[in-house]
Design a protein that fits this description.
single chain; 220 residues; alpha/beta; Rossmann fold; 7-stranded parallel beta sheet; two-stranded antiparallel ribbon; 7 helices
């Protein structure tokens, strides 16, 4: 699918930014669009690493922001990943969205976040913001959860599950997008999120399996 084929479905400002970097959408991105990504549908995207999941999130997030629908929260499991996403998003979208990072003090409501459109947080920080009754939460229209398979993690899973349960209850009209490279119960999780399931195996570099022994690799 060519990027220009969905030009009419996205804000002009967003198209002009993306048109400088890409011309053709990857398979998972095309599938997501066909399943309602740009129409506010909930999605669970399960595709390999480097298959283009982040752009799927960006399309939903920036469309919502530029069209003044509401705030976006991008939930990640690690502070390092949050910082990486913050740098990338600031580089690409700083002229069309107010972007910030909130990964610090988990005993603060961070009232300054009211002024921002796209807020990148860890699950623990977002949980804290909810417990502190951050007033801007009701303005969230898009919730993106990176590495959503960590719902099955013994340490981080319970916090993430409770967080998403609360957000689903509070934000009945928000769009939820879960991203994962590997997940065992995709259909079950998609049903829980009330989301369309997007599955694809395309990756930019094909993987080959083999056995290494005595300096030789035998592929199979």
């Amino acid at each position: 699918m060519e990027l220009k084929s969905i030009k009419k479905d996205m804000p002009k400002e967003l198209y002009e930014i993306l048109d400088k970097e890409i011309t053709k959408l990857r398979p998972a991105q095309e599938k997501s669009i066909k399943k309602g990504l740009l129409e506010g549908k909930n999605l669970l995207v399960c595709t390999p690493t480097a298959s283009g999941k982040t752009l799927i999130a960006e399309l939903a997030a920036l469309k919502s922001i530029i069209e003044n629908r509401g705030k976006v929260i991008y939930i990640v499991p690690l502070k390092a990943l949050a910082s990486e996403k913050y740098r990338d998003f600031k580089r690409k979208y700083d002229k069309v969205a107010k972007i910030t990072l909130s990964i610090g003090d988990i005993d603060s409501a961070d009232p300054y976040l009211t002024e921002y459109d796209l807020i990148i947080v860890t699950a623990e920080k977002m949980d804290s913001l909810l417990r502190h009754s951050a007033p801007w939460v009701s303005n969230i229209k898009t919730v993106i959860v990176d590495e959503i398979h960590l719902l099955n993690d013994n340490e981080r899973g319970p916090t993430l599950e409770i967080l998403l349960t609360i957000l689903k209850k509070l934000l009945k009209n928000a769009q939820f997008i879960g991203l994962s490279a590997t997940i065992g119960n995709a259909e079950e999780l998609a049903e829980w999120l009330n989301a369309e399931l997007v599955v694809d195996q395309w990756r930019p570099v094909k993987l080959h399996k083999g056995i290494y022994l005595d300096g030789k690799i035998e592929f199979y």
